[in-house]
Amino acid sequence: GGQRYPQGGAIGYIGYEAGRYVEPTWRPLASFLPDWRLVFYEQLVRQSDAELPLGDHAAPETIEVPCSAGERAAHEAGVSKLLGYIAAGDIYQANLTHQFEVPAHHTPLALYQRLRSFGPAPQSALLQWDDLAVISNSPETFLTLHNGRLTATPIKGTAPRGLDAKSDVTA
Fold first, then answer.
1. How far is Cα 82 from Cα 123, in angstroms, rounded to an integer?
2. Are 71 and 99 in contact (CB under 8 A)?
3. pLDDT digits (tens, 9 = 90+) for 5-16
C-alpha cells in the first residue's frame, strides 16, 4: 500500500544549528543532535496512518509533561535581543526555539501515534534511525517540488499582499 513516488528523493531534517554554515558569525546553542541527517532514496512510498504497522506499539494513554531544558531568564534575554534586532531593522522575523525534554517510556512510533491522535497535520512524519528519532506534526508545507517547479509556502511571518502599499498595511 501507500502512494509511490518513483522519482525518489531525500527524507530527513536540517536543524537550526546548521545555520552556522551559512552565517559564520551565528553561534547556536550546543546540541547533542547532528546538525542534519538526510537519507536519499531512489523510490519513496507514503503511508497513511491506517497503514502503519503498530504491532505492540500502541499509543500511550498519557505522556509525562515535558520539562524545560533551558533557563527562563536566558529565553527572555533572547527575546529582548531579537526585539532589538527588529527595532534596528536588522531582521523582520525570527524563530526563537525552546527545547523540552521528557523521559522516553514509549517507542517513537507510539509517541507519534499519540501526537497524531490530538490533531493530525498534513506534513507529519516519524523519522527513526538506530540512534535518533524525530517526530514532526506540522501544518506547514515549507517547500514543494512539482513538475520541475519549486514552491516555498512557509506559514511563519507571511501575510497576503495588498494591491498597493496602503493596502499592504491593512492586509
1. 28
2. no
3. 657 778 888 887
Residues 6+ apart with CB under 8 A from 68: 98, 99, 100
Report which secondary-structure segment, H or E, holds 116: helix 108-118
Count of all residues that appear for the chain in the document: 171
Residue 4 and residue 27: Cα distance in Å, rounded?
A: 40
What does the mean pLDDT of the chain come to?
76
As a whole number of angstroms, the distance between CA 171 and CA 159 comes to: 7
| Contact (CB, 8 A) for 45 and 77 | no
Q: Enumerate residues 6+ apart whose C-beta is below 8 A from 121.
A: 137, 138, 139
- Tell me the pTM: 0.59
The residues near 37 (Cβ < 8 Å, ≥ 6 apart) are 12, 13, 127, 129, 132
The answer to whether 66 and 101 are in contact (CB under 8 A) is yes
- Per-residue model confidence as pLDDT tens digits over 70-117: 678 888 898 999 999 989 988 877 877 766 676 777 788 888 888 888
The phi, psi pair for 132, rounded to 5°, reads: -160, 145
